[in-house]
Design brief:
Elements (H helix, E strand, L loop, with lengths): L1 H95 L1 H4 E2 L10 E2 H4 L3 E4 L5 E3 L4 H4 L3 E6 L5 H17 L7 E6 L12 H17 L6 H9 L4 E6 L9 H18 L4 E7 H11 L6 E4 L4 H10 L7 H14 L1 H6 L3 H12 L10 H20 L6 H19 L9 E2 H12 L3 H15 L2 E5 L3 E4 L2 H15 L3 H14 L12 H8 L2 H13 L4 H11 L5 H16 L7 H23 L8 H9 L3 H14 L1 H10 L4 H4 L1 H6 L4 H13 L5 H13 L1 H8 L5 H7 L23 H15 L9 H6 L12 H27 L7 H25 L1 H12 L18 H12 L5 H7 L2 H9 L18
Parallel strand pairs: 5-8, 5-9, 6-7, 7-8
Antiparallel strand pairs: 1-2, 3-4, 3-9, 10-12, 11-12
Length: 925
């Protein structure tokens, strides 16, 4: 009974539970149905109404919106496309225009002009501490809103203006970010009408002038192109030659430039203006432009290295280019004052042009003849071409008279500081020649300074100066020889007076004037004048320069001068070989060389030769010889090399360290490379010198790597085992190690070092450092390391298709756990093998990069400094290197990254790949 009761109770309880669940379910379903019905009855009409309203609104407006959007898109695309096409057409015209494409060389026709891009030498623009070198990157100067560029006549202002315009055209043609519309205007053609007087009308006229200047180029709506840039990305306006504006128009032009500057600033902050003028003219008008063009950059003269670079870029050599470059530079080295004058690009261009082709067939072989051509060019000819006026002999004579009289009086007056002349006296001379009043004479002299550029005002109304002291000396000599009846006598009287008073420190004041004057004298008077100069006991430097300028080596005083100078140089103790003694030695060397050529041409035998001179100097003492050339090299390395070559002294063999230390100097490097290529001195010391110079100076390494090896050097290197060679035929990965002069010199130098056949070993630490490094010749092309990557990739693809896909498609994964784990193990192993294979495949590239850095060659891609590599190759390789070493594959790595390679890299202070710099202690060196 109890059992039955219990069962009945359980049954009742179960029934109750089932009943209650059913009730709850039915109640929930009913509530859901009621809510859904209410929402449907209430919201559906509302949703329908809203949807209908939206549909009507869209039907009414979407079409209009779409048409407006398409219209704006079409207008924008047409405008953008038209602007791009117009800009490219304008830039092509600017780059192809002969006026901007070529640089004019005085004395040559159009066929002999220089291409601006090829002949341009980087110019240094200086503004106190804010100076920079312009070499083609126009962005830096464009970022300056307003700039004045000033310089002496022929300093390269117009060449700089053309180069900046062409560089800006290339930037704009390529649509590079930040580009602007370049415009080059010669200010002599930028003259506003006289009825334009207010700032607003001046600005409007100037903008219209510029717009018309752009619109004259044939293209699609060039005027619209100008309008879009002047208010948007900006103009890059280059205004060249403010000094060429006529004096009567200057005030209006200056006012227009100021108004234009304000207008451009208000139109767009990206508008940039560069204004060029002569420094002589700038000193007169600087106050007019100070507020609107505040920064002033001065063009610096060429350095000796710039002179050499210019010679390398000259395209019209009549003979062998390298030999002609060295000859011209050596000629300038032998005449320091001429080299200093050739720091002016115009003078240097004239010098090279006259040397190669001559002016109307006339060759120039003396300094006096060349200066005469330069002065004539600056006095009348060049300005006449610029202003399109014919040169007149009367005008030249007037200007020569003015400058000559002032220069002669100045040089003969010891109370005046050198090249600081009296302004008052200049006004008096001009007034006397033109027969005018003081005010007019002052204005005429200022105009003369502006048009010739030969003089500039130092202190307003007080003093002026010639652009170079040499011009002052030349005009003084011309006045003494041609402008005065007793000019030579007056000059000699002044020289005796200066020499007689040593306490006044004026003995050398006329030492450059006298040689010029002697050479400018009529030929019939030169013999007596030279005799008078010798009898008065003139300084040997003056006499030597007189023989150079006159070439009177058959004069009776020549033998006495040569004997006296030789005795002085030979008897001076080695401890007294100072700068003065070295200058006298250099001058006497040049004079003896030219005298020997002249006497030989006339069938005469020279009594004193360079060999006799240096035999007396050295006195069979080798240490004395080394001291001689070491002292000379400290003053002028190319001159020391020239002097050594002339006397049969081999500085390469005797003082290789001295030569290597100066191989970064391009002229000296050219002399050494010429010796290598011609085989004039095919010695092992020369090969060692080139290799060591490349290891020390990257400029030498790059230039030698671009030179082909001469035949005599190739024959030597062919005797070396190919595995010991420092060059490879694989030009893809080992492009830097292709056969070249540099790699051949490295190969033979390392071979000498391994054999212990290096003389003066202490002078070649770089060669000794790499002599223990495995040569690149023993390494393959990298194909061996690519094979693992190839097979690992195949294995990975196989695992994806035959492992991953079956796993993902399996429906019974949990029922076969052992099979699943086996497949996962295979996948993990495949991934590890692929990782190490990729790691090893990168070994050839890393090894090649280390070898390139070892021999001082630039890394791949270093020619583009703006390129930013966000994820460098070395970062990835460093991670794989950390994974590789712990699993004991370091022995494989060390076979290819040997300890000698890393040691040599550290000894040469090379910048190794970064994964070897911080973790190189991990490698058991």
């Amino acid at each position: 009974m109890d059992v039955l009761s219990a069962g009945s109770m359980r049954a009742a309880t179960a029934g109750t539970v089932t009943l209650d669940s059913s009730k709850i379910s039915s109640l929930v379903d009913l509530k859901t149905v009621l809510v859904t019905a209410a929402v449907t009855l209430v919201l559906t009409p509302l949703i329908y109404m809203v949807a209908r309203r939206i549909s009507i609104f869209l039907r009414q407006n979407v079409r209009m919106w779409l048409e407006a959007a398409l219209f704006r898109l079409a207008k924008w695309s047409r405008s953008s496309l038209a602007r791009r096409v117009s800009l490219k057409e304008y830039c092509r015209y600017g780059l192809g225009n002969p006026h901007t494409r070529f640089l004019q060389v005085p004395g040559r026709d159009e066929a002999g002009h220089l291409e601006a891009d090829r002949a341009f030498v980087s110019l240094k623009l200086e503004n106190g501490a804010a100076s920079f070198v312009y070499s083609g990157d126009v962005t830096e100067i464009q970022d300056m809103s307003r700039v004045r560029v000033v310089g002496d006549p022929g300093s390269g202002k117009s060449s700089l203006a053309k180069k900046m315009f062409r560089d800006a055209c290339r930037e704009a043609e390529a649509i590079r970010p930040g580009h602007r519309l370049p415009i080059l205007v010669e200010l002599k053609r930028f003259t506003p009408p006289k009825n334009v007087s207010s700032d607003k009308t001046m600005a409007n006229w100037a903008v219209k002038f510029l717009r018309d200047h752009v619109a004259k180029v044939q293209g699609f709506d060039m005027g619209e192109l100008f309008d879009s840039y002047i208010r948007g990305d900006g103009l890059f306006l280059i205004l060249d030659g403010l000094d060429e504006v006529a004096g009567s128009d200057y005030l209006r032009v200056a006012a227009t430039l100021r108004a234009l500057s304000g207008r451009l600033a208000s139109d767009s902050p990206h508008n940039s203006v560069v204004l060029t003028m002569r420094s002589q003219f700038h000193s007169q008008v600087s106050d007019h432009l100070e507020a609107d063009f505040p920064p002033v950059f001065h063009v610096r003269p060429f350095s000796p290295e710039d002179i050499y670079v210019f010679l390398t870029k000259w395209p019209h050599y009549a003979k062998d280019k390298r030999a002609e470059i060295l000859r011209l530079y050596n000629n300038l080295t032998d005449r320091p004052t001429l080299r200093e004058m050739c720091s002016n690009p115009l003078v240097l261009a004239m010098y090279v042009s006259h040397d190669q082709h001559g002016a109307k067939g006339v060759a120039i072989d003396t300094r006096t003849a060349f200066y005469s051509k330069v002065v004539e060019e600056l006095l009348v000819a060049r300005r006449g071409r610029q202003l399109e006026m014919p040169a007149k002999s009367l005008l030249r004579e007037q200007r020569e008279t003015i400058f000559g009289r002032l220069a002669f009086e100045h040089m003969c007056d010891p109370e005046q500081a050198a090249n600081s002349l009296s302004w008052t006296r200049a006004v008096e001379v001009v007034a006397g020649i033109y027969r005018c009043g003081k005010k007019e004479a002052e204005q005429r002299f200022r105009d003369l300074a502006k048009e010739t550029g030969l003089v500039s005002e130092e202190r307003i109304g007080e003093s002026f100066r010639f652009i170079h002291l040499t011009f002052c000396e030349f005009f003084a000599a011309k006045e003494a020889a041609e402008g005065r009846t007793h000019g030579w006598a007056e000059l000699m009287t002044a020289h005796r007076a200066f020499s007689a008073n040593p306490d006044a420190f004026t003995a050398s004041r006329l030492e450059e004037v006298i040689p010029f004057a002697l050479a400018l004298l009529p030929r019939a008077r030169r013999v007596d004048a030279l005799r008078e100069l010798s009898d008065c006991g003139a300084d040997s430097l003056v006499v030597g320069r007189c023989f150079l300028e006159t070439q009177l080596y058959d004069h009776p005083s020549w033998a006495a001068y040569a004997a006296a100078e030789s005795t002085f140089l030979a008897q001076t103790p080695a401890g007294s070989w100072d700068g003065v003694w070295l200058r006298r030695l250099h001058l006497f060397n040049v004079v003896l060389k030219e005298a020997e050529e002249w006497l030989t041409a006339y069938g005469r035998r020279p009594r004193i030769t360079l060999e006799n001179l240096f035999r007396d100097l050295v006195q069979d003492d080798r240490e004395r010889l080394i001291q001689l050339f070491s002292s000379y090299a400290a003053v002028d390395v190319p001159a020391a090399m020239r002097l050594a070559a002339a006397t049969g002294v081999d500085l390469v063999a005797e003082q290789p360290g001295l030569v290597v230390a100066n191989m970064s100097y391009p002229p000296l490097r050219a002399m050494i490379l010429e010796m290598v290529q011609t085989g004039s001195n095919p010695s092992d010391e020369l090969i060692l010198l080139v290799a060591e110079a490349g290891l020390r100076h990257q400029s030498a390494a790059v230039e030698c790597a671009e030179e082909g090896a001469p035949e005599w050097l190739t024959d030597k290197v062919n005797t070396i085992d190919a595995r010991q060679a420092w060059f490879k035929r694989d030009v893809v990965l080992w492009r830097a190690y292709r056969p070249s002069l540099y790699t051949h010199c490295l190969s033979w130098s390392v071979e000498l070092a391994r054999k212990g056949a290096v003389r003066h070993a202490v002078e070649f630490p770089g060669v000794l450092a790499i002599s223990g490094v495995p040569a690149p010749g023993r390494f393959g092309a990298g194909f061996f390391f690519s094979l693992p990557l190839f097979f690992a990739t195949l294995a990975y693809i196989y695992s994806v298709w035959f492992v991953f896909i079956p796993i993902l498609s399996s429906s019974d994964v949990h029922g076969n756990e052992s099979g699943f784990l086996a497949r996962m193990g295979i996948v993990a192993l495949t991934m590890i093998v692929s990782l190490y294979s990729m790691d090893l495949s990168l070994v050839p590239r890393l090894r090649c990069d280390i070898y390139v850095a070892l021999v001082n060659l630039p890394k791949r891609g270093s020619r583009n400094p703006k390129r930013i590599q966000k994820v460098p190759f070395e970062t990835f390789l460093f991670d794989t290197l950390l994974i590789t070493i712990p699993v004991r594959i370091s022995s494989f790595w060390l076979r290819h990254f040997s300890a000698p390679l890393l040691v040599a890299s550290r000894n040469l202070e090379r910048e190794l790949p970064r994964q070897l710099r911080p973790r190189k202690r991990l490698l058991p060196l």
